[in-house]
Amino acid sequence: MLLNMRNELRQFSFNRGFIRTILVLFGVLLLTSCRGAKGISGAATADKNATVKKIVISHEAASPNFNTLAARVQVVYENADRLQSITTSVRMEKDKIIWIKASLLGITLAKILITPDRVSYYETIGNTYFDGDFVFLSELLGTEIDFQKAQAMLLGQSIFTLDGDTYTSEIVQNKYKLLPKTQAQNFIHSLQLDPLHFKVYSELLSQPSENRLLSVNYGPYDKIGEDWYPSEIQIDATDKEEKTKIKINYKKIDLNVSISFPFTIPRGYLEIEF
Questions:
Q1: SS3 119
Q2: 2-32+44-258 is classed in which CATH architecture?
Q3: How much is the pLDDT for 17?
């Protein structure tokens, strides 16, 4: 049995591209909680009289509020060369630390430790590690990214800073569609919010001159306590001729539980740079 497990691990091919994908997706899962102003009450039907300012306030108020979070998450990664599926354990202490462990057949493949100013990880198949900042995340996505922006995508919040004065809104297929009044020539984006809970339904970022396209689509949201959390996220990324699909399924989420964050880069591992 042990021999079979080792063979499966060799065949898994846990490459840098998959590691980078995990880092982009789980790079930051914490949200700042904005709960002061009053927005619109959630409803199954979009309100045609809703102002952009009220819509934005309602979206900000939908940001989850928790102290700690522990989740089991399945990630399916697909590109032209491979299709891979992996189960990860995610632990968080709000605004302080994120810890992720990826495993296969009960064997640890990688651990990731994220703080507001640093990303560290190591993987056990190639005996390599990375320890650095968020610059490479910005390079991967083609736009400046930070702790708050990257994690917002994972919890159904906008990765863009929304403003009632600089955005317009319209109703498209019973969703609030928000667009900047002025789009940059090579940075075109939009998003749609669900009128029920004002979480992101879909988000799109395009950079035509670089032939880059990033779309994020959310499946049903589950209400846990007073907040809504996505149960499924699908991310499609195109960079020139290379296409990548990532599907994330939250299998279980526990809030405000006692957790720890064990992480030590093993001695003798080789440091790599992206």
A1: strand
A2: Clam (2.50)
A3: 52
